[in-house]
Structures are given as C-alpha cells and as structure tokens.
Design brief:
Strand content: 5-15%
Structural class: alpha/beta
Distance between the termini: 41 Å
Number of helices: 9
Radius of gyration: 22 Å
C-alpha cells in the first residue's frame, strides 16, 4: 500500500489530483447555485491547502504550479468565448512532454544561472588538450553554455531524457554533443568532470554512482546541493564557492585525501 501511494504521489500527478479536485468542487458548488465568490474562491483555497500536504509539493515552484492551476485555467477560459473546460489539462500535457514520467524522480528543469561557474577552473583545474566534461541531466543547456565559457577547450557532452529539452539544448549549445539518454544508465568513467544540478533526494544516488565509476583525480561538481552518502552524511568537499546567481557550487575530487 505505501508503494502504491508513493506512485500516486510521483510528480506531476499531485498537480493533476489538485486541479481535478478544485474543478470537481467548483462544479459541485455551481450545481448547488453557490455564490460566485464561493464557486471560485473555495477551490482556490483548496488548491493552496493541498500544496502543504506531505508528499504533494516539496519545492516552492511545485506549490505555485499546484495552487495556480485552477485560477489560471479559469482566467484562460474567461478570456475566450466557447473554450471547452478540458483545455485546463493542456498545461499538464505540456509538462508531461517536457518532463516525461521516467524523469519524475529527478530534478525539474532549473537553469544554471549565468556566471555561476565562472571560477570553477580555479577549484577544479582540467589538464590536457580536450578534457571530457559531462552535464548529467543538461535540461535546456544553460550549464553547457556556462561550462563552455569556463573550459573553452573541453570536449563537452550533455545527456537529457526529455526529447524536448534535448532538442532545445542541442540547438542552443552548438559547442557540445547533446544526446537523449538516461544519466543514471550512463557510464561516467570516461569523463574528467561530471556536472550535476539535482534534487537533494537524488544526491546519495549520484554520489554512489560517482564513487563507483569515476576515476581517481576526476571531478564531481554539484550546483546548489552538497553530496551526501546513503546514510545521509555530508561528503567532504574539496572546494565550495558561490558566485553570480547566489547558488553554492560544491566541488569533489574523486579519491582525494579529504574523502578518506
């Protein structure tokens, strides 16, 4: 039963349940000839309350997405005559295209801020004519562009499961090879640096993969979140800095003395 419940709460299904519940309440209130303020206001209140239930929306942007679905759909339908009610599902369909089910447990598409990796070569120097860098889960390619600025002579590669974001990244980042694939199924052993912008929940998995596959002396770089092991212990970083964008960058050299 807990496993079934967990599947039902995998993102973005909570958004669907919240939107459906809000519309069901609105339809019921309208059928009962409730005043307009109740017909529209109470479903909005329901949407906001739902976002604070455990497992529904664990980040700010998800709370906005869940709570905003009903009022946005009402606004859109109110701006056009004869618009069918089922069109409120279109934002969810777009989300499924951009963020397929296979990637629901990974990070949402948040861009790496411009300039956030500008001094990364100071903390993670790469030697050789064309060191290999992987952006694991490259999204729309913002990090690939930043990595190209930081390491102009590197051999850049991005992997992204969403075919839509993969196409966008390939178009935006002509200096990199961008392919559609599963970052967790990739072999990281051939890369001199692997860059991540993941969720805190996936960092133990990322660290375990890096420790199992990456060569001693190679670099694991994480934006925003520190690496933790499977026991929840923070992994010692070789460097930690914050630059443009205000997001911290954590740098780990595999096999370094800090990690024992």
């Amino acid at each position: 039963m807990p496993r079934v419940l967990g599947r039902l709460l995998q993102w973005p299904l909570p958004a669907l349940w919240a939107w459906s519940g809000a519309w069901a309440l609105a339809i019921a209130l309208r059928a009962a000839e409730a005043p307009l303020w109740a017909t529209l206001g109470l479903p909005m209140v329901l949407g906001v309350c739902v976002t604070w239930l455990p497992g529904v929306a664990d980040t700010s942007w998800r709370r906005v997405f869940v709570a905003g679905g009903f009022p946005l759909s009402v606004l859109l339908m109110g701006q056009g005559s004869g618009v069918p009610a089922w069109l409120w599902l279109l934002p969810l369909l777009l989300l499924l295209v951009a963020y397929p089910m296979h990637a629901w447990r990974d990070a949402p598409v948040f861009p790496t801020p411009e300039g956030a990796l500008r001094t990364l070569p100071v903390h993670a120097p790469l030697h050789g004519a064309a060191p290999r860098i992987l952006d694991a889960g490259c999204g729309m390619g913002d990090a690939l562009r930043e990595l190209h600025q930081a390491y102009p002579h590197a051999d850049l590669e991005g992997v992204e499961w969403s075919w839509l974001w993969r196409a966008v990244a390939a178009w935006r980042c002509r200096s990199a090879r961008v392919r559609r694939g599963d970052m967790w199924a990739d072999d990281w052993s051939a890369f001199d640096l692997v860059y991540l912008f993941q969720r805190p929940e996936t960092m133990p998995r990322a660290l375990a993969k890096a420790r199992a596959e990456m060569r001693p002396g190679s670099w694991l770089v994480s934006l925003e979140f520190a690496a933790v092991d499977e026991a929840g212990r923070i992994w010692p970083a070789d460097a930690h800095f914050t630059q443009e964008g205000g997001r911290p960058v954590w740098v780990y050299r595999m096999g370094s003395a800090r990690q024992g």
